[in-house]
Amino acid sequence: MGKDPRLQREPGGTAGRPLRFAPVLWRALLQAAGDVPDTHPLAGDLARWRSDADALKTVPLLGAFHVNTLIRTALHGSRSSALGIDIGRTQTLSSFGPAGFAMMTSATLGEAFRVGLHYQRLIGTPLLLHAETVGDDVHLHLQSGVALHTDVERFLIEEFLASLIAILRQETGRDLRPTRTELTSPALPPDTQRRYHAAFGDITLGAPGHVTVVPAWWFPLPLLRADPAAHRDAVAWCERLSYGEAQRAGHTFDAQVRDCLRQQPADARHLTDVAAVLGLHPRTVRHRLARLGTSFRALRAEVLSDQAQEWLTSSGASTDHIAHELGYSDARSLRRAVRNWTGRTPHDLRQQPSTAAEDQE
Q1: Rounded to whole angstroms, what are the CA distances from 259 to 26, 122, 212, 303, 334?
Q2: Are 214 and 259 in the same domain?
Q3: pLDDT tens-digit series, residues 106-155
Q4: Confidence at 71, pLDDT banded by 50, 70, 90
Q5: Where is this region: Disordered (predicted)?
Q6: Same domain, 41 and 157
């Protein structure tokens, strides 16, 4: 797929992690954005995107600037105190294409979760999802996959959690709700906080990260629309979509490894983690990359460099926060890495001129 040259010019561009929304969320955002003046940074894009959506064309890949600007425009054009909840609670698994169909036809809720985590890139969200078992609970961590503004991140968390709860109930026939949800927001307007508690139950604000906790006993629950044969075909479809597009575009194995690294959470970017996602032995990954004249270590550094520069040029997050998001022990380690990659300091990168479009944001 060709890259939009405008995305290549903006800070961060699409190099860090190009994004594609799920069609149902994409259409909802285009509708919520409403009419914008000709001077709006996305005026031309919105007209083209809506025309393409009417023609049922594929949702485009977006960079951090377009994601932030589109969602902020939708938020400003909405009267809702929690637009993400309003959009999320209307969604079904069929809204998420082949990955949603693979989840819907899974035998159990646990299998559906595993499918969703494995094919999250196909579902269409700028969030990165990572699950871990803690005692009798499963903690689902939600992280920003790109540099997002605070209100944009809050919208995406709202939308994800609301859709998760709605889908849990639809597919199991039970009134399921997370045990608790922890969010980084230090405070919310009273009406928004009431909506959060009504929609999500027990909410803790000011947490160090976004986490929703569900009991492990949910995972053996059967799904109402389980279908082994359809599930097998849907998973095969997802596999073709995951890597077929890159191969058809002439991308080699190193492109698949880069893409996988971008999707993995910060603590799961080791060779063994990526090899497991690709369904290969770590030795096989090393040998294939060596034949292409590169290495896993070099690709990992490339991806981290792209993401660090995207965060530094497209967000106001502190260097400590960015270091944590990228898996570094502290800001000092990140500064050293950035200097090795670019010959510049994080402060220098933050001072580089913004695009005219960003100035109008």
Answers
A1: 22, 12, 26, 9, 22
A2: no
A3: 999 999 998 888 888 788 777 888 888 889 999 998 887 667 888 898 99
A4: very high
A5: 342-361
A6: yes
Residue 301 resides in a domain: yes
- Domain assignment present for residue 247? The answer is no
The residue range of the domain holding 326 is: 252-350
- The side-by-side arrangement of strands in the sheet containing 203-204 is 127-134, 137-144, 210-215, 180-182, 203-204
Residues pairing with 19 in the sheet: 62
Q: What are phi and psi of 203, to 5 degrees?
A: -120, 135
As a whole number of angstroms, the distance between CA 274 and CA 263 comes to 10
Domain boundary, last residue among 218, 241, 268: 218
SS (H, E, C) 22-76: CHHHHHHHHHHHCCCCCCCCCHHHHHHHHHHHHCCCCCCCECHHHHHHHHHHHHH
Residue with tokens 């609970």: 137
Number of domains observed in the structure of the chain? 2
| Average pLDDT of the residues in 14-34 | 78
CA gap 267, 130 in Å, rounded: 10
Residues 268 and 212 in one domain: no
Query: Which amino acid, 81?
Result: S
Strand partners, 181: 203, 212
Q: Tell me the two tokens of residue 7.
A: 């995305």
Q: Provide φ and ψ at 141, rounded to 5°.
A: -90, 135
203-204 and 180-182: which strand pairing? parallel
User: Considering the entire predicted model, what is its pTM?
Assistant: 0.68
